[in-house]
Amino acid sequence: MNVEPSLPIYEAVLQAHGGHFDFVGYVRDGLRYVAHRDDLHKMASMGLDTLPVECIAIPETSPLLHGERSELSAKADYSRRLTQYFPVYFVAALYELQSLILKFDAKGYVIGGITRDLLLYNEKRLAVRDVDITIEGDAIALSNFLMENSRNFQVLERYPEFGTAKMRYKESLMFDVASTREEVYPHCGALPMVVKRGVPLVDDVIRRDFTINALAFSIHELGHVLDYSNGIRDIEMRQIRVLHPVSFFEDPSRILRALKFCARFDFELAEETHRLLEYFLQCGGRFYKGGGERIKQELKGLLGVAESEAKRRCLRLFMESGCYRLLNMETPYQHTTESIERLDRLSLLLPVVESSLSGYVVPDFLFDIHLCFLFGDMPSEDFQKTSQRLGLTKAKREAIEHFRKLRPSIAERFGTLHEFASPVEIYDLFHGLPFITVVACILELGFDNQPLMKTALAAFATYKRKWERLHLELDGNDLIDLGVPEGRAVGQLLDELLHVKLAGRLPDRLDEIQYVQNHLQAQAEAVNPVAESVEPAEEPTNSHVVPPAP
Ligand code: CTP
Predict the structure, then answer these.
(1) 179 lines ligand 1 (CB under 6 A)
(2) What atom in ligand 1 is closest to the CA of residue 209?
(3) Quick one: which H or E segment has residue 224?
(4) How many other β-carbons are positioned within 10 Å of the β-carbon of residue 60?
(5) Which residues contact 485 (CB under 8 A, 6 or more apart)?
(6) Is 254 a pocket residue for ligand 1 (Cβ < 6 Å)?
(7) Which of 24, 56, 242, 490 is 20 to 30 A from 368 in CA distance terms?
(8) Cα(536) to centroid of ligand 1, in Å?
(9) Alpha-carbon gap, residue 450 to 452, rounded angstroms
(10) Which tens digit of pLDDT belongs to each residue from 277-317?
């Protein structure tokens, strides 16, 4: 049935229903676009029925069209890869699982990332951590059966409300066992609700994110891969394709997942997937509620990909297409061309930073650094709201806040740094600042002055190695006990002591005490030049000041 692209979905639902049509569609640039009735219904049930049909219409020739889905697009035998690419302990677990699943009389599959990686990587020994298993049946009953029939399987947790169980095989291999299921999304960005369990495999895979993640590695027919969505072809064509047109409206965090996989595997977005992404950003954003935690996790995944040309390309797309607005659709903040440019150049500088500071790099390093630049120019209120939505920890918020404050004075602050800077100069420059703040400041320097950036990196690495943990043996109370008058003089002398210590002249506590006493004596002589020596300080009351017995 022909409709206008701008027809609201609720109208299209009525018309399709009234006319008993499976599709509504229109012609644009010589190409026929169609939206399936089921997808129109899904949009309507999420409250998105005022949006135009074109938001989810796809070319008639698209492989995403309903109808082809119950057909297997490929069933391929990958059993040779099994022993070639999977670690031995995992292969052993799969063989044992196969015989138990056959006894249980069910069909079980390894699903998701591991299967994708098995087909994707040709040479690597794959690392296997958490394994997702799905069975066409009752996952909790299977997990009980596995435990009753093998000492190697142990159920760690059962989640009856989700019909899933967490299991351990031998010492350390973890399995998540789930029943195949159908889900619905109550609204855009909500957590999905399971409506049916134990459904045929095809209905389970088709609800997922991308064709490359919808491949099922059979356990009962060990080594066979079942492909209902041309995922194998998409791996060969190196492209990321959603499984249905409503995917991004149901779970917008999948947009970041798409970019993450493109960056990680050097893939491209399939054309219609790219268009669906743009439609979501254009018209779906205002309906997007909740989901901050998932967005954070996926953003971490994307920003945490090692620097490469592919990542750079994806981050450019992230910025230029406005995907960054997913972090908080409610703020009107728009990045300027200049800030987009800066984020782009970050990819070129980060490898230098990572190699200079290797050994000090913290777990979320790439994520945290990118956040500094993503949030660097934002008005304060937008920054607060966005970091709240993402649930950033206090430490992360403070590090970014520090960077935002220092930013206008970075050139001035670091401008005097040179190769022969003294320990004191270096210490004063970095001390008290969070690691991420310092690195972001150094990167900011690097945008205009790479030699200075390298000098700063070398200085910071030395600071981390030698002086970050440097501290005095004496504290303010000790100084007072030694005769320093209470007040500003205590702080000033502590500072002086630290600087002398940085120069390597106060190796231990006795040297520090001696230095204080000399200082007091010099002061006394300055006030009263005839005095030959100052009265010795009273016997220190604070036992800390008494040099420890040899
Ligand atoms: N999945 C999905 N939609 C999401 C997240 C996950 O459909 N928003 C599905 C995908 O089929 C995915 C599987 O759940 O393969 C497991 O997700 P996850 O563990 O997050 O990712 P992996 O695909 O295993 O990838 P990674 O290598 O990053 O762990």
Answers:
(1) no
(2) 7
(3) strand 224-227
(4) 13
(5) none
(6) yes
(7) 242
(8) 73
(9) 5
(10) 999 999 888 889 888 999 999 999 999 999 999 999 999 99
